[in-house]
Amino acid sequence: MKIKTASRPGSDTHIGFVLKGDMKNAIKDFEAEKDTITVRYKGKRTVIYCGLGERTECTSRTIRAAAAAGIKKAAELKRKAVSVLDTPVDCRSDACARAAIEGALLGAYSFSKYKSKKPAAVTGIEFVTKEISSQEANDIFRLCRAAWYTRDLVNDNASVTTPEHLAAEARAIAADKSVSVEILDERAIRKKGLGLLWAVGKGSPYPPRLALMEYKGDPSSKRKIAVVGKGITFDSGGQNLKPSGHIETMRCDMAGAAAVLGLMRALTSLKPKLNVVGVITCAHNAVGSNAYFPGDVYTSYAGTNVEITNTDAEGRLALADAFAYVQKHYRPSHVIDLATLTGSVVMALGDTVAGLFANSDALAQSLYHAGEKTGERLWRLPLYEEHSESMKSDHADLRNTSKLKRGYAGSITAAAFLKEFVGKKVSWAHIDIAGTAFNEGEARGEVPKYGTGFGVRLLWEYLTA
Ligand code: BES
Ligand code: ZN
Ligand code: ZN
To answer: How far is the CA of 282 from the centre of ligand 3 (A)?
Structure first.
């Protein structure tokens, strides 16, 4: 893909935006309702008009989705080079231009590795706008490319994106001078006492890995943010095996780790003045005679003993050891984790909004706003003492599933478990992306089917706002 900005369209295929009721720019027989498109041919030129609906309801979100629809139409018409025109005068700003660029780039994505006949794709996009510099457009391109990379990782086979593979990706990211990397292999995980990550990974021929990437863009600042991603490369459920209907998509269970890798890629590519530690906690939750057993107790890196009440609640175990390790060795001021942690969050918020939990109102607020801005939306859920209470074990210190009735507050109690592994002075937020990371339905707007890349732009926005 090649992109540029221009002051005048240079290609024969244009993508234009139309507001409903905009008499001056109206297109014959086109109402310009939101999510509608019409294609017009004018001599050599093809114009794809995307409806934006009413001016009063048109937001960045509308424009992002419209631009994505426009680019998909262009691909369908087998166009290679496309000019994306400015948004209408009535809604023209740098935010609108940004949304159009993001929408077009995110919408241009397709995963065709396993298609013998590759679908037609747009290979060059020109953005005709004065609202944004070519430098800014290029930065957006770099960020969207990082989201594509995250999508690619989530979409590929679980037998390809193994813990070792993800750790190798971390190492590759650290080829950039701005990033250093530490990788714990299965021996180190066991020897150093990351007993929970070890328990989750031990049943698999694909051994576990913990990878930590440190990006030091601002040595003068004490602010250091650790971003931790759940990297369960396949979640079979373990001995508490998942049934058909729930297991088929479980290669997506490393989407948090994939988003962290995407974010680190964006950092090396865009070099902001920040300090970030990216952590991926990777294991294959296998079923088999070497897999960990329900009822057993394992000791975490933090020293807490955890009774395994369900081997399918593995993500919190992998995260707990990663939290303890990164806090001890990297001393971050903030910890933010991204995890496809619970089915319950899908029940509560569906597949377009992620669950947000935090021990800091300020951090929750900032993340919420980043979500509104990027379209990767978050909604905060509570965390109270009774939830923490329900995670106490009679047999050991903690249990990995709650004592509450089956199905009660599943996302909250998972977050309550994680909270036990966060230091009192650390600002922490947990983002449950089980619903948003993997789209089982049809593509909508800039969100493709399957891996969505959720979290990369959100975290970038939070970090750089
Ligand atoms: N990886 C799953 C959560 C998940 C569900 C992700 C649907 C994506 C889509 C997680 O490890 C899990 O199995 N959670 C259990 C926890 C339960 C055993 C307490 C759940 O949510 O059912
Ligand atoms: Zn599970
Ligand atoms: Zn899982």
So the answer is: 11
> Is there a catalytic annotation at residue 444?
no
Percent of the chain with pLDDT over 90: 100
DSSP letters, 256-289, are HHHHHHHHHHHHHHH--S-EEEEEEEEEEE--ST
pLDDT at 179: 98
| Catalytic one of 34, 171, 192, 242 | 242
Number of residues written out for the chain: 465
Residue closest by Cα to atom 14 of ligand 1:
342
| Average confidence (pLDDT) over 439-453 | 98
Mean pLDDT of 122-132: 97
Q: How many CB atoms are closer than 10 A to CB 288?
A: 12
The CATH number fitting domain 2-129, selected from 3.50.50.60, 3.40.220.10, 3.20.20.140, 3.30.460.10: 3.40.220.10
Residue 268: predicted pLDDT:
98
- Rounded to the nearest angstrom, the distance between the alpha carbon of 47 and the centre of ligand 1 is 45
Give the mean model confidence (pLDDT) for residues 99-112: 98
The domain spans of the chain are: 2-129, 145-464
Question: For residue 224, what are its two tokens?
Answer: 């250091």
Q: Please list every protein residue whose CB sits less than 6 Å from any atom of ligand 1.
A: 235, 253, 310, 312-315, 340-344, 346, 401, 410, 434
Q: For residues 163 and 185, is the Cβ–Cβ distance under 8 A? A: no
State the pLDDT at residue 93: 94
Q: Which residues on adjacent β-strands are paired with residue 432?
A: 339, 355
Q: What is the pTM of this model?
A: 0.98
CATH architecture of 145-464: 3-Layer(aba) Sandwich (3.40)
